[in-house]
């Protein structure tokens, strides 16, 4: 039997769906908790989108890895299980070394440098994302990375056997180069890693040290200005294509604003977080000469290692950055 009688109830339901079909509801995941300025910025972005589109697009942000674990965020957006995601860019380094260029020491040690590095590498990163049906929305740097320890870091020999928490593979390599013993730990797992005695020290920013109450576990922060790594926020091309043009425009405009706001938030957060560390009893200092030399040597090895893995496109992007900074 081919024909179906449409009952008034079904008809009413169908009309109701049609009336709301153009309003899109997106799901987005980030591994970072609500205490992170990145998450605050991303939630603001979602609010901006809802407002700019008069509710035509609403984005629900699931923070703290509550919906999808960090490693599953990009695959989930690719598969279309969720529409958008935020990740620590350098955790994608297994896909291509360009993704970890912002965790190389000696390359970009200020916000201006870090932003220039983002601009120089964005075309290649955008292209690689496009192969997977993904579109970058914006990227924001964390404050510079430094070293948290449970006693003053005065001698590079202290790295010998030190169990150091690291947020990505490249930082683990760096710890290895220093003679330490690295463990990759998500930001949200930092308190457990310390309280269960799995780690003695960590590499991260003032922001994460503050958000994770570092003073509960360590006493010293060596502000070594190692590098300013980024988070990247991206969406599914398919989800984007389903939006009408005006909504797409409003979304991209809100993303541009989120990027600008995020970099300023990062600078501000670095100041407030450093002050909070000090207020809570952490001794903040710069590395002494011996430690600085050891960090530089470990960084040099890291760089050589990266160059051996990177392809010509990645090296050209780096060259473009260097030329831009030399101007
Ligand atoms: N905080 C995140 C990434 C870099 C940072 O400063 C973390 O430590 O996991």
TrEMBL record:
The keyword Signal applies. Keywords: Signal. Gene3D superfamilies: Bacterial extracellular solute-binding protein, family 7 (3.40.190.170). Pfam families: DctP. InterPro entries: DctP_fam, TRAP_DctP_sf. One of its GO terms (biological process) is transmembrane transport. Residues 1-23 form the signal peptide. This is C4-dicarboxylate ABC transporter substrate-binding protein.
